[in-house]
Amino acid sequence: MGKSDKYNYGVVLDAGSSGTRVYIYRWLRNALARAQESTIHKLPELETKDKWTKKVHPGVSTFGETPELVGTDHLKALVGHAVEYIPKDAIPNTPIFLLATAGMRLLPDQQRRNVLDSICSYLKTETDFFLPDCDLHIQVIPGETEGLYGWVAANYLLGGFDNAEEHDHGKGHHTYGFLDMGGASAQIAFAPNSTEAEKHANDLTLMRLRTVDGVSQEYRVFVTTWLGFGVNEARRRYVKQLLDTYAVEALDEIPDPCLPHGVILTIDGELLAEKDVGQQHLIGIGAFDECLRRTLPLLEREKECLDEPCLFNGQHVPAIDFDVNHFVGISEYWHTTHEIFEMAHKDKSYDFNTYQNRVAEFCSQDWKSIETAIGDKLYGKKVDEQTAYQVCFKASWLINILHDGIGVPRVGLEHNPTTANGTKEIIEAGKEKGYLEPFQAVNKIKSTEISWTMGKMVLYASADVPALEEQAAPVGFGSNDGSIVPADFQLPGGGRLQPGSLSVPDQSITSKITDTLLSSDSPHRIPGFLFFLLIVFIAFFYLRKRNANKAGTLPRRTSSQTLFSKFNRLLGRRNASKDYDRELEDGSTRLYDPNDFELGAMDSSDDDEVASKPASGYASPTTKRNVKSGGVAGRLTPDIMDRRGLLVRTESRERFDGLGGRKSGQGSRSPTRRDR
Question: What sections of the protein cross the membrane (predicted)?
Fold first, then answer.
């Protein structure tokens, strides 16, 4: 069995404000995962590798005025990279998502729409990836959704979902809080303690996952985002504040305490040599304590709180119990604490006192000495001049966000009874118990980078698992309003499920048989050889009948046909000469005429559900096969059958993204593939 037969693949393009990065994930197909005792009671096990990711600059939001160039000048390299690592025959069944974040949120509406449309057009015409609906697969996601995906990714990698007993934080709490900060926005997501969860139930989000054995897991999570509070947007507001402060004096040289001593920048943040100074510019004075004071007002803590309690900018957040809420921070939280300051300091546990002292020491240096250190790779190969002169502001912003904004204890200065006293004890506690500090910046866990894109694919893979019960609630997230399927419930493919409709289409018969064959504890397990002979017999019968029909004659009813009709009845099918119906997502029925279908070439891999089902969860084969014109949206047609097998292929309801079948013309299939 090849890799394309064993695995589902998924591609996510993280379109941030400063660049776009492609991520590739794969996971075992359902039947194979269920055959492994070690994973059956866990969420689907995703795999990714460093070499599967690639980032290009700048972000897609920079194409607001030239959307026609976003494909050739931006996406081409990313798509080409993905094609290198996904088996060719798996690409048509591999879903691709481009999910844009804060940078695109700041674009004018029409420019944003034009960029998204251009991305859709490029991916449809230039790739063979599975792209059934651009509105669902290519979109700007809210900051809250980004935070939820990040929360799922962090807890997935840390083990908070699958090994709850090993992550007991007290008070029945076993998940971790999540912090993310990019260039334009910042997010927080966490499960409040039981008291706060009850008090602020309407502010929480219902998150539902499903383990490989079909069992649902539910969590109530608080998530919010601060648009404009990412490091780049905060820096922009900070520079404006500086200019306003010195506007009366009409100075050409504006002193900046958040820049290393002696560094010269344009107002737009470009590095200047002394000989090029001739316009209004910023000059670093390297006063980190003053930098902290000047950046603190940017939190806007004075804004009115309309719904107590609030953190900063007047945004409501339930009280955080640092006894049980232990946060991990990614993106800028990691880069700003580690890219420079950890090269000469081997302990990687964050504490306020040590970190602030390191930053103050660095920022007080003369810029020329810092340039020399960069040239000598003292701070590592990845640190360049831009990273070095930006880090003082970023560090001050991070410290203010963490401690004065979110309220993380100043470990190293404040007594913290929830873990230990002092840096050394906290480091040791971290080694023994895991991530139990109030805050820890992380980049990788178990050699895997934490990215919200992984949370997206964990949900997607989880939704692909057949539910244990027919009326099981779908995978996804929505308002915590007490209903099983809230009105705003989001499915992992991006769509919405109609509230009040819970029935999930059964697995296909072949999938059920495959699961039975591969399940080690199934009481109905039968030898695979006998099953193979049965498939060959059925195929022989259909091929013989088809040939006879083509010859213009109909064979007499034979014993094999009689046996096959009995087999039909055994499986609960009606007479092959009659239409039969299937209950669909909306509760309606669709009549099928077996004569609409035609048997294609048989392949032994078709025995297994995993060899023929699209990873996307849509009932779509590998070639263009759209819903017939005049069909009803949300209903399957014969064109959506797996033409390689004998039986109708159905999917978990939540994987249809609330849309049912594919819309006409939506398949991302190009007769010629360019730029591979």
Answer: 526-543
In 3-state terms, what secondary structure has residue 306?
A: coil
pLDDT exceeds 80 at position 88: yes
CA 71/CA 93 separation, integer angstroms: 22
Residue found by looking up tokens 């096990």 in the block = 45
73 vs 57, 70, 82, 85, 183, CA distance in Å? 10, 5, 16, 21, 22
Whole-angstrom distance, CA of residue 664 vs CA of residue 624: 10
Residues of each annotated binding site for ATP: 183-187
pLDDT digits (tens, 9 = 90+) for 634-671: 322 333 333 233 222 333 434 434 333 333 334 443 33
What residues contact residue 169 under an 8 Å CB cut-off, 6+ apart?
323, 324, 325, 326, 436
Residue 558 belongs to a domain: yes
Residue indicated by tokens 């239409």: 579
pLDDT in tens, 126-153: 999 999 999 999 999 999 999 999 999 9
Domain residues for 591? 509-651
Domain-embedded: residue 615: yes
Contact between 304 and 297 under an 8 Å Cβ cutoff? The reply is no
pLDDT of residue 533: 63
- Alpha-carbon distance of 43 to 221, in angstroms, equals 18
DSSP assigned state of 25: E
543 falls within a domain: yes
- Tell me what the pLDDT averaged over the chain comes to: 76
Active-site residue (options: 146, 196, 585, 654): 146
In a domain, 488, yes or no: no
Q: Is 367 exposed, middle or buried (0-12, 13-18, 19+ CB in 10 A)?
A: buried
SS3 at position 434: coil
DSSP per-residue codes, 541-555:
HHHHHHHHHHTT--P
- Cα dist from 96 to 132, 347, 497, 585, whole Å: 10, 39, 21, 24
Assess contact for 93 and 622: CB atoms under 8 A.
yes
How many domains is the chain partitioned into structurally? 1
For 228, list phi and psi in degrees, rounded to 5: 95, 0
∠ CA 258-262-266, rounded to 5°: 70
**Per-residue burial over 496-535, b = 16 or more CB atoms within 10 Å of its CB, e = otherwise:** bbeeeebebbebbbbbbbbbebbbeeeeeeeeeeebeeeb
Residue 473 exposed, middle or buried by CB count within 10 Å (0-12, 13-18, 19+): buried
- Outline where 464-527 has alpha helix (H): 509-518
Which range is least confidently modeled, 193-202, 261-270, 609-618?
Answer: 609-618
**Active site (annotated) includes residue 146:** yes
Q: How far apart are CA 385 and CA 271, in angstroms?
A: 9
Read out DSSP for 184-227?
SEEEEEE---HHHHHHTGGG-EEEEEE-TTS-EEEEEEEEEEEE
Confidence of residue 38 (pLDDT cuts 50, 70, 90): confident
CA dist., res. 136 & res. 51, Å (int) = 27
Q: Which helix (H) or strand (E) holds 32?
A: helix 30-34
- Distance from CA of residue 27 to its chain's centroid? 14
pLDDT at residue 539 in the model: 62
